[in-house]
Amino acid sequence: MGVTDTGRTMVLTLNAGSSSVKFAVYGGGEGQARLVSGMLEGVETSPRLSAQDADGKVLVDRQCSLTGDSDPHLAAIDLLMGWIDSHLGLDALAGVGHRVVHGGPDFHLPIRVDARTLGEMERLMPFDPLHLPACLGPIRALLTAHPDLPQIACFDTAFHAGMPDAARRLALPRRYDAAGVRRYGFHGLSYEYIAAWLSAAYPDLARGRVLAAHIGNGASLCAMQVGRSVATTMGFSVLDGLVMGTRPGALDPAVLLYMMRQEGLGADDIEKTLYHESGLLGVSGVSSDMRTLRQRENEPDVREALDLCIHRFTEQAGAMIAAMGGVDGIVFTGGVGEHDAAFRAEACARLAFLGVQLADEANLARREVISAAESRVRVLVRAADEEATIHRHVRDCLGDHAKRNAG
């Protein structure tokens, strides 16, 4: 099997999206290393389960058929837990940690889930009807199938909960804020990981002003001072801020009124346009995938999409830096931020007026530090690892629970 451990010491992390479930299993020995990483893709169409161990050895990679449950997401969890049971044994799991996209106005810390707290999270559906069902489905399935298995919900919005009131409030009548309609920010588990990594690896920078850039199919920026979020580009939803793969980012609300009045679009059609047909895909008419766009960047529409992406990055990076009163470091993370040297080079060239200078060779080689020695701002690259953050929260919550029981 390639993976062994003893006792009820392992932790499973689940990051469930609308069509996939990303998972990892951590051991309970010294260092609590990641033992398995995997993905269940194409949940609603043609499911494919893949996983590898810490050495990169493939443990499974096969097409699957989901049967027995009318909800494919719940059937997918049954399939995944069955595979984990056959390879590791469910009795080895001490707990399961979940990424939950939206914590609403009340969930600011990781929380152990029971039927009551699940019901409270389900009442947040109006805040994110597109993503929360996928996040909460696995929790509900595991509560039913494995009620004694501890589950911890970790919220993507929690890292931004301490933002100043001026950074989170919307300029709407106060009744909306009272109902929870405000700026929340997202990618918080990724930013929390970056903050912890900086604290360990670059403590002087962690104590300063850092622009963290999570750039992928979904993208946002976070202004971090002393490791805490003081501003971020995403707001009430994941639609706000930067140009993304299929989302437009910041948008004049009157555009939505135009869609309603001139095109007769209803909420469902507008939602489809904003979440699935806009951004890089909508402008280029080619793809939402930056790798594909780089191969065709000489085509006018593709070039326009790429230029718009960088232009919006520059605008909003300026806003985040202004919120901190300057910048000491920039960290690129996420799929594009980690792998696209051209994006990093173009973005940093726009920030050269701040004293940002890249070392071209280091940038192309994707070294950890890619800024030139003479740069006034350090620029770093770090792979996103939301699972590591979830794993830490599960360990902490289980430890706190054990202490309370012992007391």
Automatic annotation (TrEMBL):
The record marks 187, 247 as: Transition state stabilizer. Its EC number is 2.7.2.1. One of its GO terms (cellular component) is cytosol. Signal peptide: none annotated. It is found in: Cytoplasm. Its main location: cytoplasm. Mg(2+). Can also accept Mn(2+). GO terms for biological process: acetate metabolic process; acetyl-CoA biosynthetic process. Substrate binds at residue 99. SUPFAM superfamilies: Actin-like ATPase domain. It is an enzyme of class 2 (transferase). GO terms for molecular function: acetate kinase activity; ATP binding; magnesium ion binding. Keywords: ATP-binding, Cytoplasm, Kinase, Magnesium, Metal-binding, Nucleotide-binding, Transferase. Pathway: Metabolic intermediate biosynthesis; acetyl-CoA biosynthesis; acetyl-CoA from acetate: step 1/2. HAMAP family: Acetate_kinase. Belongs to the acetokinase family. Homodimer. This is Acetate kinase. It comes from Acidomonas methanolica NBRC 104435. The gene is ackA.
